[in-house]
Amino acid sequence: MAGTAQIGVTGLAVMGRNLARNFARNGFAVAVHNRTASRTRDLVEQFGHEGTFVPAESAEEFVAALERPRRLVIMVKAGAPTDAVIEEFVPLLEPGDVVIDGGNAHFADTRRREAALRESGLHFVGTGISGGEEGALLGPSIMPGGSAESYESLGPMLEIIAAKAADGTPCCTHVGADGAGHFVKMVHNGIEYADMQLIAEAYDLLRRAAGYQPADIARIFKGWNSGRLDSYLIEITAEVLAHVDAATGRPFVDIVADQAEQKGTGRWTVQLALDLGVPVNGIAEAVFARSLSGHAELRAVGRDLAGPAPATLAPDDAERFAGQVEQALYASKVVSYTQGFHQMQAAGAEYGWELDLGAIAGIWRGGCIIRAAFLDRITAAYAKDRALPSLLADEQFAAEIGAAQEAWRTVVATAARLGIPVPGFATALSYYDALRAERLPAALTQGQRDFFGAHTYRRVDRDGVFHTLWSQDRSEEQQS
Length: 480
Known about the structure:
Mean pLDDT: 95
Number of helices: 19
Strand order of the largest sheet: 3-2-1-4-5-6-7
Number of strands: 9
Largest sheet: 7 strands, mixed
């Protein structure tokens, strides 16, 4: 029936199908469309009992089924496929209609699309959605960008289908203009990379240094999940480590190839951090760790390189070491979030987005992959000081990291002594120490740059920009 669906979803692969079902389960009439019509029919046949679906086999039918203002969700692959769908549907739309891209688009593409559709009087809402296929169905964390006007129309619907935090708050908020939603989702994924790398390093240390077996480590992680490390990733880590492969009877983690794959969002986070001049060392190391794991030939060549003999700690020392690893993991995790929030803060200033970092932390408390108990604390920290320059400037976080630092240093030193790679833990500690340092060796770097390239430098004793005439008289200096 024409004009009866409150929202439409085109692109019915797993994420799109589950998102459509989520809308329908929450009482919305949903128009559904897919390039392959059989997928549309299958959705209605299998799940039509869950709510009201309005199937459409053509773009014209799909648009006609939507009530005004039309709300059209695109759930296809990022890049050219998204552009193709936009080009197909936009001529059928009218001013005031809202086009929502729920894929993992690059934020620059979203900015381009938003500007182009705005000229036609259409709203384009780049929307980050986190939680995987289960989250799409049961309630994801949703990060919509776009205009404030578009959120007035779309936001109430998204808030209904979003996950809810423990206090009942919907895990959805208007993030900011044009590409802000996809940028924030990208940083979420970058933090996710870092979080997963740190957890993997903790596992490796507990196994290779402390001598625990996967089932033992699963119990340790389960215990950690009842404390300050309570999070979705810690929870599933315990389950993965406890899982036994049915075919071999061996721990599941031992039969999986140690070559991690990745999608684009982690890499984009690092690339854009470089553009913004923001250090996200932990996220970068996580991306590079996955990259290195996939270079099988390079690793094979390096396997015979000299290193310390394998050794494990005595049982009493192992138990104490496990507690130190928990402290190192927590401290490194806080640093990773600190870097991610710094990047969002810098992007907000660069692109004119008024990002509410506390609200962003709030919508990550449920539904998404990095949901964790300590996000409540981050939300509270930014509520106390919206202009907080760094999470490490928060009194409570600073005190906790200070209390954990000795154990953190012991863990990194033990890993180095035993030849166990911990790029995540080590770079997080270096970042922390760099922030603490009264003087950094960058002064020497500036001297070198001035020597070979006349790049100039500033002085600590007077204002201005200076250059030393190195080739003439090393004591002679010019002020620019």
